[in-house]
Amino acid sequence: xxxxxxxxxxxxxxxxxxxxxxxxxxxxxxxxxxxxxxxxxxxxxxxxxxxxxxxxxxxxxxxxxxxxxxxxxxxxxxxxxxxxxxxxxxxxxxxxxxxxxxxxxxxxxxxxxxxxxxxxxxxxxxxxxxxxxxxxxxxxxxxxxxxxxxxxxxxxxxxxxxxxxxxxxxxxxxxxxxxxxxxxxxxxxxxxxxxxxxxxxxxxxxxxxxxxxxxxxxxxxxxxxxxxxxxxxxxxxxxxxxxxxxxxxxxxxxxxxxxxxxxxxxxxxxxxxxxxxxxxxxxxxxxxxxxxxxxxxxxxxxxxxxxxxxxxxxxxxxxxxxxxxxxxxxxxxxxxxxxxxxxxxxxxxxxxxxxxxxxxxxxxxxxxxxxxxxxxxxxxxxxxxxxxxxxxxxxxxxx
Length: 399
Known about the structure:
Helices cover 34% and strands 26% of the residues. The chain is α/β, with parallel strands linked by helices and 399 residues long.
């Protein structure tokens, strides 16, 4: 994809990644892909903001070379050191040796650790302005959004916020880089939520701090490191991030995430009628087979919905491992303050409920009720299971 002009003398320089299976080695993007967005400003000084993963190095450098010789770059701004942002830095250092690398003080330390680059590197101060000709760039620290060295860069002339990982999302760019030209905005919004919960959610307070810090800036365009550039309604993605960050400690949406696993179909049989009981009350309901759905796709539902229904058999005296894995990921991401209920089958002794409590009690999940049965559920137990789902949904609706 060739370079795209965002504003006069400001260009998107990026690559689409449709071949990587796992983002950060964890989160699946095989179907969705992801973009690595970099930006080039041509002024009296020539500035490259953020880089790319070392995936399509030739394509990345060719885009820049079509606009300016690499050797004439004056500054390389590294808002973030993660290798999906900096993977080409060693090669670029060879091709643009006179360019000064700018970033936060912590960036300077980490650049030496990650890449052993120490020469021609300068830390910028909070709020510092860099005069590059007709415009000035200003830098603001955004620590733990989502690494400690992260900062954002603001072009005061064009009112562009180069926001790094903030306001980004999964999803390769399909023919356009702009929100107002996108034909499938709902896809990018959903993938921004999944990205947020997978990558950033644990750092929701720093996200809110960063939004508050930047509130006084006039922002016409948000240009993140992944996903769409928001030029039509930049405030929309900010408000989505503000809402999602607020879910860390505040009220969430009324709805149920039903996570289940089943070895031989007994728990699944009950799950079908529990789900019917919930759905009959009109609440949003997302159902996930924990053994067959990557936790990446389950976490957004857990993050946004107020209720969690856990369906799992006892396995070797403990919780069925795929369901336990989901709950452990919820603990890692600090998904707090949910109302929960649990059902499942066991063979000769229980243990699943006890194991689940060990994980969810530190998260302050309220386990409102449990329903266990031996082996295959009877007609009477299935009737109880449907009522079990209805009762839980009624509890959530009542607040």
